[in-house]
Amino acid sequence: MNFTKKIISVIQEAQAQETKLNLEDTISVIKAVTNVSENKNLLEKTLQLILIVEQKVDTSQKLTIRESQIFNLIGLGFNSKEIAEVLSISHDTVSTHRKNIIKKLSLKGAGKLQKAAFQHTNEKLKK
C-alpha cells in the first residue's frame, strides 16, 4: 500500500469510527503528504479530503457510508478509476455505487451527479 493510500485509509477509519482529527493531527498528515507526494494534483485532493473528513454528506440519510465516500471523492474531482484505486474496490463496484447515488438523489445522469457532488464539496469547504 503506498503512503497516500495509507493516509486515506487512516482518515477513512477515523471517519468510520466518527473520530474527528484535531488540528495537530491534520497538520501532521499534511506535512507527511507534502514531504512524500510528488504529484501536486493528488496532494491537493488529499488535503481537500482531510478538510471535509469531519463533514457528513447532507444526504447521509439517503446514502450508505460507502456511497457517501464515493460522493465526496466525486466532489473532489476523482474519476471512477481513481476512486476504485483509493478505496481498493473494482471499477464496476464504483459504477454500481454511482448509479445507486444517482437514483437515491433523483439526479438525471452522471453530469448532474458530478455537479451535485462539486456543489456539496464546495459548500463543505466554505464552512
Automatic annotation (TrEMBL):
Domain HTH luxR-type positions: 56-121
InterPro entries registered for this protein in UniProt: Sig_transdc_resp-reg_C-effctor, Tscrpt_reg_LuxR_C, WH-like_DNA-bd_sf
Domain of life: Bacteria
One Gene Ontology term of the molecular function aspect: DNA binding
A Pfam family recorded for this sequence: GerE
GO biological process: regulation of DNA-templated transcription
Keyword DNA-binding among UniProt keywords: yes
UniProt keyword annotations, A-Z: DNA-binding, Transcription, Transcription regulation
Entry-linked PANTHER family: DNA-BINDING TRANSCRIPTIONAL ACTIVATOR DEVR_DOSR (PTHR44688:SF16)
Name listed for the protein in its UniProt record: HTH luxR-type domain-containing protein
Organism: Rasiella rasia
